[in-house]
Amino acid sequence: MSTLVKARPPKLADVDFDGFLDTLRGLIREPSVVGTEDSFFRVIRRELEEVGARVSYYQGVLTAQGSKPDQLYLSAHCDRHGLLCTGANEFQYAAFIAGNSCDLTGESVSEQMMHSIGDRFFGQRVQAHLPYTGTYQGQAKITRSYVCPHRRNLIFELDGLEFLQPGTPISFLDRLRIEDDCLSAQLDNVLSVAIILHLFRHGFQGTALFTAQEEAGRSWRYALSWFQRQQIETDRLIVLDTSPYPSRADADAQDIVLRRKDANGAFCASFTKELVDHCDRLGIRHSFKDAYVETQNLTRAKPLSLGRTELGRLVTASGGKINGATLQIPTTGYHTTSETAAIRSVTSTLWLLMNAYV
Length: 358
Description:
By secondary structure, the protein is an alpha+beta fold. It folds into two domains: 12-79 and 176-357, Zn peptidases (Aminopeptidase); 82-172. It is 30% helix and 28% strand. Strands 1-2-12-3-13-18-19-11-10 form a nine-stranded mixed β-sheet, sandwiched between helices. A six-stranded antiparallel beta barrel has the order 4-5-8-7-6-9. One of its GO terms (molecular function) is metal ion binding. Keywords: Aminopeptidase, Hydrolase, Metal-binding, Protease.
């Protein structure tokens, strides 16, 4: 891209936003229920190989590299929330099935929000797919959802799909919607995947990691194994994601969200400052989520969690050998098919990454 940079909010044409939307629309239609991401990985692989990236696939992580793989490392998880058939006409929230109960400590944002989102799914249409191939098997509608106190999970009742076998993933039937200068869909975290693909199409030559099972608290393990396998240490990893806010006013108070730390500990201060400097240079409004949470907790009877992010877990598990920064898009309607992000936030994220690292 041109080195001429103007300190202003980007225009849609500056970041080829129409091309980005085409990518995002296609990805949203592809199922990627947590724990059954194989078919989605194949979709991403095809897109990356078309633009000449060198692609490798290991358990739980797909990597893509350009001609300057050490320039920058990007990471985005590929899984999205959905249901899993666990018995005859029995359906549970895929991220919290019994196999993941050992990771439920009560400290994740997902767990803290489970009770508040339990009643949001009434009437939502869903579709079933074969676990590995993604082959379509049928649709149904959610007639009831509730939190089971014994299984500590969201339980769903459907008006169809009684024939499914245990282990079958069921995704929310979803399409991208554009209204009031916002994008809506189940954006977490297909939005970040689309951003990385868009960067590769526009000349990004670094490395990207697409991880599985982040919503089950496992993606960091796959990312760490890849770094260890390649004997790579870095403090230039950017983890892309969405960041939930309780209202549009709160979300719209900034274009992008950064963090100095999460519940695991501190992130790389120098690299975070580099992102801040780029934001200031480009006229992008930014805030720190950890500071926001700490301010909210001053007046809350029950404190909010700082969250345990993929980056924080990587920093802790690697003893600081893997570090970097988070770059998040503020959203509302977290973990639903109506998660909403301002177009300005999306274009600002693209503007930042394309100007600074492409």
